[in-house]
Amino acid sequence: MESVGLRWVSVLFVDLVGFTSWSEGQDPADVREVLSGYFEVARSVVAAHGGRLEKFIGDAVMAVWGADVAHADDAQRAVRAGLEVVSGVAAFGVSRDLELVARGGVVTGEVAAWAVEGEGLVSGDRVNTAARVQSTAAPGQVLVDEATHQATRDVVEFSDAGWFEVKGKAVPLHLWRAVRAVGLRGGAATGTLVEAPLVGRVRELGLIKELFSATVEDARPRVVLASGGQGVGKSRLVGEFVTYLDGLAFRVFWHEGRCASYGSVAFGAWAQMVRQRFQLAENAPKEQITAALTDMLPGWVPDEDERRFVAIRLGLLLGTI
After folding, report:
1. What is the mean pLDDT of residues 176-192?
2. Long-range Cβ pairs for the range 210-217 (8 Å, 24+)
3. What is the separation, in whole angstroms, between the first and last Cα of the chain?
4. What phi and psi values does residue 252 have, to the nearest 5 degrees?
5. Which residues of 230-242 are buried (b: 16+ CB within 10 A; e: fewer)?
6. Residue 129: is its pLDDT beyond 80?
7. Using an 8 Å Cβ cutoff, are 135 and 105 in contact?
8. pLDDT at residue 117 greater than cutoff 70
9. How would DSSP label each residue in 152-221?
10. Rounded mean pLDDT of 230-238?
11. Beta bridge pairs of residue 162
């Protein structure tokens, strides 16, 4: 075991509420299946937000950001991941006709770190405090300490949860309830996104996230169709998904295309998205489109034969052929 030293980290603890009492009398295979699904939700969310899953303790999960590689937004990642795990667990429960509820706690501060065969371990007061904060949260809530709140209040909406006597702490802790992400990283676009809570779309949003993760994992495209009358929440669903993408640890290129409800051109939305990628205006002349494809396509499609194949089809899509 090699000592790495002191590190400034954010620690996330999540556990299932009432799972022990529910599991009594259940078939062990059913309990194992539910726990495996829950652990997989936590594992995928933590990885997507650039964290490291430290350990599973019964039905509790501990994850850390900043122990091995530090980022300026580690606290933001931890809070976003906490919210995502809690909502993901609820969605997983719905898919299994179960009422699964999780709760979480995030604490930020200095810990002692060790390296063991390429992995990291952390210990200290912040780890224990994160577990205590998690146990203080109500079902479905994610509570954070003051340091985490200060580091993330520009991108996450909070409500003041109050002061709490926490076991092992000499003085009460001021805790904040994380409600939802309301801006892009660094505070960009804070207050410009929809502020009302997302209601009645847990399953749909969870499905879109699952399809996105599968697309990244096996590099195969998926198409999601969201249809419905005006005001049912299609745009809000897209907005929630974009906010989710912004919190991921890796870069995601995102373009939007729309089809009018009247006189739509076939593949019109796809053409809009391609124009965005190649920085082309809607009314760009053919010569400009051809030049953009010639100049920029090699950066996206290095193989010459494949590029020739793609260029012909993009030309048809954008009307140059």
Report:
1. 65
2. 212/241, 212/245, 213/44, 213/48
3. 64
4. -125, 125
5. eeebeebbeebbe
6. yes
7. yes
8. no
9. HTTTEEEEEEEEE--TT-SS-EEEEEEEEE-S-GGGTTTTTS--SPP-S-HHHHHHHHHHHHHHHHHT--
10. 75
11. 175
